[in-house]
Specification:
The structure is a single chain. The longest helix has 25 residues. 63% of the residues lie in helices and 0% in strands. It has one domain. It starts with a helix and ends in a 15-residue tail after the last helix. By secondary structure, it is an all-alpha fold.
């Protein structure tokens, strides 16, 4: 096994682990279905940066007090 193959395997394993951790983190955030799907797609489609963005940006459901009601 060459160094290139080892590095490729390590990169794939780490990117997969970060994605799984990001999806696990999203599961507990209480997001509406559409938002949860959008954040999960971000984590999956951008494999290296996506999981970090999911954790750093802290997605959450909108607070009822902050939602403006129509008068």
């Amino acid at each position: 096994m060459t160094t290139t193959e080892v590095l490729r395997i390590v990169m794939i394993v780490l990117a997969s682990a970060m994605t799984v951790l990001a999806l696990h983190y999203l599961r507990g955030r209480g997001l509406p279905r559409f938002q949860a799907i959008a954040w999960a797609l971000l984590a999956l489609l951008i494999p290296v940066v996506g999981p970090f963005l999911v954790v750093v940006l802290r997605p959450r459901a909108a607070c009822p007090e902050k939602v403006l009601s129509k008068s």
